[in-house]
């Protein structure tokens, strides 16, 4: 009876907690500042190379002629430009790989701060390349900027997932995607001929990268580190308590600290898991597979092909060269609005319907776009249908597939597994990004107007997999999400815990001792444990 009353009390307390969840000032500032100096720059660098492409190629040609006394041939110029565009993804892969040890030693917030060194360095190299007469500086800057993006797309979702209450974890996680979209749109606006889209001004497009980085450097130090990181990895209960208080906007955070400590007791230790260990852990096999599928589809579904080659696609649709920069603005605006809409409804509708529904709509519009591009010379209004399809594809992507993969990666894994999981997700993300940037021109040349059917097939495969495998994770703890996957992984919850930590019980005992001593020393409030 007593247990039943306690259970009912806990359920009541949980319901009260759900009702009282607020977006505190620190939580809002941390998410906006973190995203502005991180995912915003990723989106900005996806689109910023489109507008000045003609001028940059001219700069390459003039530099080549000045050095060697003759103009560069067309194939070499195309290769140089392709490398300039796609090398960003190679830098991103490097960043994703080195992100894990960095977030381990420096923490989530400090990693975001240190990452700005790469952004500022890249901005200086790229903005001064014309003045120095060196296209190698531009290419090197793109690589370094890719490293910045690779680190930020691992550290930022990790930080946001760890500072947010589970009731608004999805909405806060969508901030990453929203700022990617805002970054894309900003790159398009600044690239207009009236602003920086001129031959003499295109270096300013790259110099502008330093502004968000410097703003983040000024604001982020005044915000707390991830409380989960402080509690579970640094074992600093007092700092974790203060961080929870600031992020949640309340003094009594005993429930939140108990929840995290309970998770740590279930895990038995928080020693970071390597990628190999994570891949060998049977209890998370389907979670890893789902992250690989969602991240692979995030890049391979074809949206980056549209961003990288927007101008070519609109030209094929019959839009005049002078009008293209302004039409392109509509794509960035639609993307941003769709991402904001997704952030507003994700906690009501859930991750699963938005993700599967987004891929489903993309299949429909990719098919219509293929028909429209194939027949556009026979019917005068079909180019406008092509434009509508492109906007619809972008909106469908941003409603679900554009941001939810980052949210899921943070939700599927416990504290000790999360860095390795983000490294796997980042590796798949950037390899797929590079493959699309490099191969799409050849796919387009070979298949012509049927090229988008390839992406429709990938969307179909992803949607089918997610329909059968992905459980709903809305408002669920890690333990509840593990239970949802337990049957598919063919393990019980008890087996999950033993399977992963049997070899590490020594460090487990050490950690429990640390927590016990912390409580004994009065670092936590009475009644927390």
Automatic annotation (TrEMBL):
UniProtKB keywords: Membrane, Transmembrane, Transmembrane helix, Transport
Gene Ontology BP terms: D-glucose import; dehydroascorbic acid transport
InterPro entries: GLUT, MFS_dom, MFS_sugar_transport-like, MFS_trans_sf, Sugar/inositol_transpt, Sugar_transporter_CS
Start and end residues of each Major facilitator superfamily (MFS) profile domain: 31-474
Sequence intervals crossing the membrane: 21-42, 79-100, 112-133, 139-160, 172-190, 202-223, 288-309, 324-346, 353-375, 381-408, 420-441, 447-470
GO molecular function, one term: D-glucose transmembrane transporter activity
Transit peptide among keywords: no
Region entry Disordered, spans: 504-529
Membrane topology, as annotated: Multi-pass membrane protein
One protein family per Pfam: Sugar_tr
Subcellular location(s) per record: Membrane
Protein name stated in the entry: GTR9 protein
Organism: Tyrannus savana
